[in-house]
Amino acid sequence: MKAVRFHETGGPEVLRYEDIPDPTPGDGEVCVKLDAIGVNFIDTYQRAGAYKVELPNTAGGEGAGAIAALGPGVSDFAVGDRVAFNAGSGAYAEYTLIPAARLFRVPDGTPTKTAAATVLQGMTAHFLVHSAYPLQASETCLVHAGAGGVGLLLTQMAKMRGARVIATVSTEAKAELSRAAGADEVILYTQHDFVAEVDRIMDGEKLPVVYDSVGKSTFDGSIDCLAPRGVMVLYGQSSGAVPPVDPQLLNRKGSLFLTRPTMGDYIRTTEERDWRSGDIFRWVASGELDVRIGLELPLAEAAEAHRALAGRETTGKVLLIP
Q1: Could you tell me the domains of the chain?
Q2: Per-residue pLDDT tens for 249-278?
Q3: Which of 16, 79, 149, 192 would suit a FRET pair with 157, their CA atoms being 20 to 30 Å apart?
Q4: How far apart are CA 50 and CA 101, in angstroms?
Q5: What span, in angstroms and rounded, lies between the C-alpha atoms of 3 and 60?
Q6: Whole-Å CA distances, 60 to 68, 94, 162, 306
Q7: Could you say which DSSP state residue 28 is in?
Q8: Spatial CA neighbour of 302 closest among 91, 154, 20
Q9: Which positions of the chain have pLDDT values less than 50?
Q10: The dihedral sign for the CA sequence 2, 298, 37, 74
């Protein structure tokens, strides 16, 4: 089968489109024939060496398709079932192996591409606004990268909870997408200082929470936007890793809280997995949640997908199609 692998870490050019053996599922595993593969920032971090993985490595951890084969001990699924996953490995391929316990059933009526575009970023947005900091009605939050895949979904979910959303974006075209998702205020950070703009919008009041996926270039400003006992939810580093932080900073800025959440810790139980995935697929089916697929590329062009994502040229979800 065809797959995209890297044998060394580095820039997008290290990704190779090559032939590898077809996979055979082991105990508790299924083999999924992929129809769509999600591209995420974590893929770029692993490729670049910021997150360590074994080499050579078949990139990717998210996708959706149909079950092609069952391993021993799998009884909850059948060949042909449509499934999605967000905590796998080796997804940049025509086929991949996934433990059956990590699969989500794709409901009838939900396109497979939509499932691939939703299962990681949608569940991320869900745990951010429901659990990492449970937004309350009438609260105001700041969402960085408001036109990105998570940003658009997070904005919609924050509005479902009755919150007010201030979003930051880089261009007017992205601002339009952010407003369409429900953002009450949109700041073009390329034209305005977002800290000053938040201060103006809030009439000098501070925020209870900032959701920040950008990292290095926004961290200090995000901290400055928070009210005493406010929560800094840092869930990405698209501009680079945040340098080491002196805990006294949180003291000086008002007894702030800093969290760096990861998906696995918010789907630790079957109940949590079912809650988050059930909400997301139900909202997609009802039209309450709009999933934007901003870019689709052939699997062979994975390097271009990484360049576009890292260059902040994309909006919504980026998919690779085998």
Answers
A1: 2-119+292-321 (3.90.180.10), 122-264 (3.40.50.720)
A2: 999 999 999 999 999 999 999 999 999 999
A3: 192
A4: 28
A5: 10
A6: 19, 12, 34, 11
A7: T
A8: 91
A9: none
A10: negative
Spatial distance between the Cα atoms of 10 and 50, rounded to a whole number of angstroms: 10
Backbone angles phi, psi at 228, to 5 degrees: -50, 135
Residue 207, pLDDT score: 98
Residue 78's Cβ-side half-sphere holds a number of Cα atoms within 13 Å equal to 1
Alpha-carbon span 277 to 270, nearest angstrom: 11
Q: How far apart are CA 74 and CA 29, in angstroms?
A: 7
Take residue 208 and report the two structure tokens written for it. Answer: 């209870």
Long-range contacts of 204-207 (CB under 8 A, 24+ apart): 206/230, 206/254, 207/140, 207/141, 207/142, 207/166
Q: What are the beta bridge partners of residue 19?
A: 2
The predicted pLDDT at position 57 comes to 97
Give pLDDT tens digits for 3-22: 999 999 999 999 999 999 99
Q: Are 178 and 148 in contact (CB under 8 A)?
A: no
Q: How far apart are CA 156 and CA 253, in angstroms?
A: 29
For 264-284, the DSSP string reads GGGS-SHHHHHHHHHHHHHHH
User: Which residues fall within 8 angstroms of residue 250, CB to CB, at 6 or more apart?
Assistant: 256, 257, 258
Distance CA 161, CA 139 (A): 9
- For 136, the token pair is 């309350």
Token digits of residue 319: 């998919």
- Residue 143 near residue 167 (C-beta atoms within 8 A): yes
User: Given this model, what pLDDT does residue 312 score?
Assistant: 81
Q: Which two tokens stand for residue 297?
A: 């590329």
Adjacency order of strands within the sheet including 207-212:
185-188, 164-169, 140-143, 207-212, 226-234, 257-259
Backbone angles phi, psi at 16, to 5 degrees: -120, 135
Instruction: Tell me which amino acid residue 47 is.
Output: R
pLDDT at 314: 87
Q: Indicate the pTM of the whole model.
A: 0.91
